[in-house]
Design goal:
The chain is mainly alpha-helical and about 150 residues long. The chain is built from five helices and no strands. α2 packs antiparallel against α5 (about 120-150). The longest helix is centred in the C-terminal third of the chain and has 31 residues, at about 120-150.
């Protein structure tokens, strides 16, 4: 894969990760269980660090990294806030929203790791980020189960 293709791939993942970061931060602001709030905040920080690392790599490759997420994600976060205002802080609904975003991130990182021929350094970075996202996603799913037993 040439550098231009790698830059294009990384910029798509930057946007996906930025969307994940902002959605998780918004979900954390709506959650009321301290453990869930903290986990969502930590997960958003993971994506923020992934974005910084990918942006640095794009710079090293001579490209211009994306900085923002998508407008659709802004609408999604706004809808989440409005839904929380109307329905109360239904953490199940918050987690449903997070899960849909995380499925998208999982698909994008899996595709990047499994179907793109990147340099060994970029491949290792993407594998680490994919695995870190999966671990956090599984932790959120497990927390959902614990929260369901509390209600």
């Amino acid at each position: 894969m040439n550098d231009l293709d790698t830059i294009t791939l990384l910029n798509r993942l930057i946007v996906t990760s930025r969307n994940g970061e902002s959605a998780l931060r918004a979900a954390a602001s709506e959650a009321h269980h301290a453990e869930l709030k903290q986990s969502l905040q930590e997960y958003s920080l993971f994506f923020a660090e992934a974005v910084r690392e990918m942006q640095d790599t794009v710079h090293k490759l001579g490209g211009h990294p994306k900085g923002l997420g998508t407008f659709d994600n802004t609408l999604h976060r706004t809808f989440m806030h409005l839904r929380a205002l109307v329905e109360g802080r239904d953490e199940g609904a918050i987690l449903d929203s997070v899960e849909s975003d995380e499925r998208e991130a999982d698909i994008c990182f899996d595709d990047a790791v499994n179907h793109w021929d990147t340099s060994p350094e970029v491949h290792a970075m993407l594998e680490r980020q994919r695995d870190g996202a999966r671990q956090r996603h599984q932790a959120i799913r497990a927390m959902r189960g614990r929260l369901d037993t509390l209600h």
